[in-house]
Amino acid sequence: MLLLGAGSSLSSPGILAAEGYSNCEGFIDSLPATITAQGVWCLRKDLNTAISAGTAIDIRANNVTIDCNDFKVGGLAGGAGTSAYGVRALSALNATVRNCTMRGFYVGAGLSGSGHVIEDNRFDANTYIGIEIAGDASVARHNLVVDTGGSTTVGGYAVGIKAGGAVDLIDNTVSGVVGHPNSSGIALAYGISTHHLSGSIAGNRVGGLVPSGTGTVHGINNQENGRISIRANDVTGNGGAGTGIFCTFPRGSALGNVISGFSTGLSGCTTQDNLIVP
């Protein structure tokens, strides 16, 4: 395992953005890697790993930026039974993941704590969840999450983006979510799934949700929600059973969304000026 800490420093970090290599604290040149010092850590080539457990890039410090410079972190060799994360930070502060392609992991990116940013990435062919982000003052924006699902580690559903806490989900595209069936042959597909969210869900595009058996699809599903704003999202179902946008409590406000292809367009939210097409 590559361990990158203070002794691996190449330069003092300036701003937390690589924009090439000039502001990189150091480089991640092999996987798996553990980051133990703050700063901007960059890729300068595509990287692949065959791990089926653990984490390809493990963030164990606060104030860390992973900037892939549009290179790939690949985990397809871990197979459908993988439980490995592409990048992960547990109970950390101010982690940022940007300009990455995360492919073939159980979870593409999983960040918890607070102050996190996941932006301008592509999450491709991850088997369970594309993006998982939890913690106050965090945001996932401008990400493309495609072809999520197929995990044989967990059956019954798959999720494009999962979030909790005071998190904003802004201008993301979720396309293609297919859960691996459970022992009863059922799988649900969630585009965006939140729990105890109190942020904003705005300008996202969700589609390509595919259930299995008697499973249903859920475009934007908000469980135990706080005061959330759900606005200007385009949510498309498969024409079968499912819900376009759901709130547990009416303090979730849905405004100006376009919803089509669900048996139930909107449920539980306070709504205004939404377009719902069967």
TrEMBL record:
Domain of life: Bacteria
TM region positions: none
Gene3D superfamilies: Single-stranded right-handed beta-helix, Pectin lyase-like
InterPro entries referenced in this protein's UniProt entry, alphabetically: PbH1, Pectin_lyas_fold, Pectin_lyase_fold/virulence
Protein name: Right-handed parallel beta-helix repeat-containing protein
Organism: Agrilutibacter solisilvae
